[in-house]
Amino acid sequence: MNLPIQSNDIQAVIEADRAHVWHHLIQHKPFETIDPRIMVEGRGMRVWDATGKEHLDAVSGGVWTVNVGYGRESIADAVRDQLVKMNYFANSAGSIPGALFAKKLIEKMPGLSRVYYSNSGSEANEKAFKMIRQISHRHHGGRKYKILYRERDYHGTTLATLSAGGQPERAAQYGPMAPGFVMVPHCLEYRSQYPDAESYGLAAANAIEEVILREGPDTVGGLCLEPITAGGGVITPPEGYWERVQEICAKYNILLHIDEVVCGVGRTGAWFGYQHYGIKPDFVTMAKGVASGYAAISCTVTTEAVFEQFKDDPSDPMSYFRDISTFGGCAAGPAAALENMRIVEDENLIENTQAMGARMMDNLRVLQDKHGVIGDVRGKGLFIGAELVSDRKTREPMEEKRVAAVVADCMAQFVITAATNRSLPGFNNTLCFSPALIATENDIDRITDSVDQALTRVFA
Ligand SMILES: Cc1ncc(COP(=O)(O)O)c(C=O)c1O
Q: Which of 262, 299, 430 to mutate to test the pocket of ligand 1 (most atoms within 8 A of CB)?
C-alpha cells in the first residue's frame, strides 16, 4: 500500500532538509543531485517514505531500535499523559515513571539493583566508565583506572566511548583518543586468531588475561564487552568464552560492564543478551530498544555493591557520583519504557523473537547452501548477520561496495536491510538483520527472499 502524499508540501520538506539538515553517518555530496531519504510514517514493520513508497523494515529503524514496531498509540498515549502531568524535573529528584520503570526493569535483572538514567547508549556507557574511574580513585588510590574493550566492539560516538571502540574506522580522524582504554582481541571464531587452540572460546578469553597481565592487574578497573557484538559483525561468543571471562574478572577484581545497547529488552530472545550465558555483570547499559525509539532513554544499571561505594562516606563532599544528564530527568523516557515493556510481555514478544529468529536463521542457512558468497551465518533471536566472502575456502572478505550493492538491491525491492560499514578496514562484509520483535513468518520470508534475489543479481 502506498500512502497519498501531498507533493507540494513534501517537496518543501525535502528542500528544507537538503538545505539545512546534516544527516548522521552519511556523505552529503550526492544530495546535491538526488533527494535525501525522508521517512514519513510507520506502522508495525512497515515505513513509508516521502514518495509514498512502502518498505518492509528489516532493521528496526536502521539501527536495532524500534523493537515493538511503529505506530504504537499506547506508547504515544503514555508519553502524552506523562508530559502534560509532569514533563521534567532534574533527576536529583525522582519521577513516578522513573521509579516504576526501574522497579520493573530490576525484576528482569536478578543480581542488579540500581538504575541511572541518561539519553543515549554512548552516555550510558560513559557513565559506567566514570563510575569505574571514581571507584578507582576512591578505593584503589587511582591506580585501577584502565578500562579494557574488545576489538570489533562498539560502545558509542563520544570521545571516551570511541576511545573504547574496537572499530578503527569509527575513530579514524577523531584522535587523539582518551588515554586509559586498552584493547583485547576479538572472539569471532570464523576469523580465528588461534588455529591450534583446542577450545577457541578459552583461547579468546585467555587472550584477555594476557592483556591484563601485560598491563598489570592492579591498573585494570573494568572490562566492557557487548554480549553479542553488533556493528562489528554480529559476533556470537564461542563456547566456553563467557565462563572464562567471568573467572578472569573475579580473579583480578575487574568490574564487568556488559553493553546491552543493542541486545537489551528482548532483541536476542531473552530479556538481556548476557542472560543466555550465565554472566553476572557489575554494570549493564542499555538504550535503543528500551523505549523502541518512542522517547530517548538509556540506563546504566549496577549492583548494590557498586552503588554502596558511592555512599559510604557522606562526610566527604566528593564521595558520591557527581554526574548529571539534564535530559536524564525527562519523564517521557521511562513512561515510554514502561509501556514498551508491557507490550513485550503481553504480546509474548520474547517467545516470538525466539521463533522468528529460528525461522530467519533456517532461511539464511538455506541461502548459504545456495549462494557460495555466504561464508557464515550467526546471531541470536532477531539479531542475525550473514558474512559475505569472495572465496569460501580462503574466507576472503567480500568487498564492501559489493555488500552495499546487496543492501541496495533489497532496498529496490522495498526491503530495508543493512550491512556493517566503515568499521573495520577490509571487514565491512556482514549483512545485518534485526526486524522488530513483532515480525511474522511472512515478514521473515519476504526479507530472506529479497536477500536471495539480491545475491542472485549482484553475484550473477
Ligand atoms: C553496542 C552499542 N553500544 C553503544 C552504542 C551507542 O549508542 P548511541 O548511538 O545511542 O549513543 C551503540 C550504537 O549503535 C551500540 O551498537
A: 262
